[in-house]
Amino acid sequence: MSLMRLAYASEATFEAKPVEKGVEPHVARILMTSRKNNARDQLVGGLYYGNDRFFQYLEGDEDAVRRTFDRILKDERHKNVVTLIEEPLTSRTFSNWSMKYVPLSRDVRNFLDEQGLESFEPSSFTSDQCEKMIELIRNSSQNQNLVNRDNNQSVGDAPQVLSSGMKMGLIVAGLVLVGALVIGGTML
Ligand SMILES: Cc1cc2nc3c(=O)[nH]c(=O)nc-3n(C[C@H](O)[C@H](O)[C@H](O)COP(=O)(O)O)c2cc1C
């Protein structure tokens, strides 16, 4: 099995909607599909989205990367896809994330500042800048549970019916009530 890696830049064709649970809704849908498919195909990598631009990095089995990229190229949610890296890989460089997602975070802003770039325009990244972006994705500590794979609900925002403090309070109140009933019963 031969491995390869691939990075590209593209421009979103959709009009960005307000962020819901930390992710733009179109991007959330892309991520859900990507995570399902990439986990199945043992592909890893990351997706950056900001300034209506995408930067995506994929690595894994060559056939799987190429099949996935063929689907991505046909996707009408983006255009002007520019391949930045497409080459063989001797060993995997990511741990087991199927698709890390990092919005235009402080790390990327620092990187843009360092490089003297005013906005996120990945299609004009040099190969050195691409490697730095990949390194940012690799080291990203973004909460990867933000987009739940099954129902697009943020795990962090899942409604908490009762907080643990309230639960403890109810248990104590229940015990006090049982105690009172037992004591009351013995006094009758
Ligand atoms: C910017 C962008 C990145 C995408 N990345 C992936 C990806 O990593 N893996 C994937 O399977 N689909 C990805 N997609 C979605 C594919 O274009 C396509 O819709 C999807 O693979 C179809 O999957 P399905 O046949 O399971 O419905 C991406 C789409 C866009 C616009």
UniProtKB/TrEMBL annotation:
The chain crosses the membrane at residues 168-187. It comes from the Bacteria. Keywords: Membrane, Transmembrane, Transmembrane helix. Pfam families: BLUF. Residues 3-100 form the BLUF domain. GO terms for molecular function: blue light photoreceptor activity; FAD binding. The keyword Metal-binding does not apply. This is BLUF domain-containing protein. It comes from Marinobacter salsuginis.
